[in-house]
């Protein structure tokens, strides 16, 4: 039978059939189609862990798949970095990116990674509220009495942090230089462990993120200073470093990154989901709980920040002369 002018050819019919069959397959390949994992390099219950878990829970509502948090504490928050860099760049393995990761290549002879080249930076989230706190029954009522004791007892005062060469560790070293005193650093795997050490009397003070604030509010600890640009609303009587004569603001902004080579469409989907989570009322409340300043940057701007910060960290490490090997 002769085909009419408007009738489809056999080849066209086969093409339409193949297209119809391919469409569901393409739909099934949408990202994500299985659970994601998010490396958090701190102990469970720390301020960063609580914040990242909140983000994961909120983002999975947008992504339509679970975002499973894996805690990998230790090595100053860098134990997760090499597994992250070695993961497939498919968007299903993510990790917290922070300044210790950017800094570490400049602290060792053989850099284990390049924070600029070895990762896909998805978005910057927020920073930490750092400060120094002591046990409530300690003899130091304020920062000045603490420094006076340090000057009279060189090397005797100890401070806990979440690890060697972390932002808070280097900031305390810098403060020691500025004040003309010598502290002794006692690193722990996470800020919650450091807080416990101070409460037990094993260490004189903690210089770390705000996991210690509830202890100050309860009367178990006393804050001597905060490192934010302005005083913290929850601690209105505690001075900033600027008020104490030091032109220093230390917030150490962090974000989320994945392995290098991720598809731009996948990056966009992850960025949008975690950005929505960051600015949600639920996560805003969590950040307020830990006094974490919002410091959002999109993917392009965050990659630029990491590159710029790498140069700064290299200069700072060289100036302080700190090495890990």
UniProtKB/TrEMBL annotation:
Q: Which Pfam families match?
A: TctC (PF03401)
Report TM segments.
none
Q: Which residues form the signal peptide?
A: 1-27
Query: Per UniProt, which keywords does this protein have?
Result: Signal
What InterPro entries does the entry give? BUG, Bug_dom1, TAT_signal
Family, as annotated: Belongs to the UPF0065 (bug) family.
Identification of the protein by name? Tripartite tricarboxylate transporter substrate binding protein
């Amino acid at each position: 039978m002769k085909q009419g002018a408007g009738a489809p050819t056999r080849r066209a019919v086969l093409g339409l059939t193949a297209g119809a069959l391919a469409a569901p397959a393409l739909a099934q390949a949408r990202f994500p189609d299985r659970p994601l994992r998010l490396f958090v390099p701190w102990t469970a219950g720390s301020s960063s862990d609580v914040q990242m878990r909140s983000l994961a829970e909120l983002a999975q509502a947008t992504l339509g798949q679970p975002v499973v948090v894996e805690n990998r504490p230790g090595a100053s928050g860098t134990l997760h970095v090499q597994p992250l860099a070695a993961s497939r760049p498919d968007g299903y393995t993510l990790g917290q990116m922070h300044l210790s990761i950017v800094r570490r290549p400049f602290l060792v002879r053989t850099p284990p990674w390049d924070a600029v080249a070895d990762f896909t930076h998805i978005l910057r989230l927020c920073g930490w509220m750092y400060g120094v706190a002591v046990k409530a029954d300690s003899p130091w009522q304020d920062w000045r009495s603490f420094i006076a004791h340090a000057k009279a007892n060189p090397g005797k005062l100890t401070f806990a942090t979440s690890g060697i060469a972390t932002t808070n560790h280097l900031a305390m070293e810098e403060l020691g230089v500025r004040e003309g005193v010598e502290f002794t650093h006692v690193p722990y795997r996470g800020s919650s462990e450091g807080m416990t050490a101070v409460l037990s009397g094993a260490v004189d003070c903690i210089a770390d993120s705000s996991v210690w604030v509830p202890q100050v509010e309860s009367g178990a600890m006393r804050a001597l200073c905060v490192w934010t640009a302005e005083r913290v609303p929850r601690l209105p009587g505690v001075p900033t470093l600027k008020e104490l004569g030091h032109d220093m603001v230390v917030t150490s902004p962090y974000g989320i990154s994945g392995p290098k080579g991720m598809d731009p469409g996948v990056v966009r989907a992850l960025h949008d989901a975690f950005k929505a989570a960051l600015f949600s009322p639920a996560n805003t409340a969590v950040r307020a709980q830990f006094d974490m300043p919002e410091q959002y940057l999109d993917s392009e701007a965050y990659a630029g920040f990491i590159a710029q910060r790498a140069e700064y960290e290299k200069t700072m490490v060289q100036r302080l002369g700190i090495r890990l090997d």
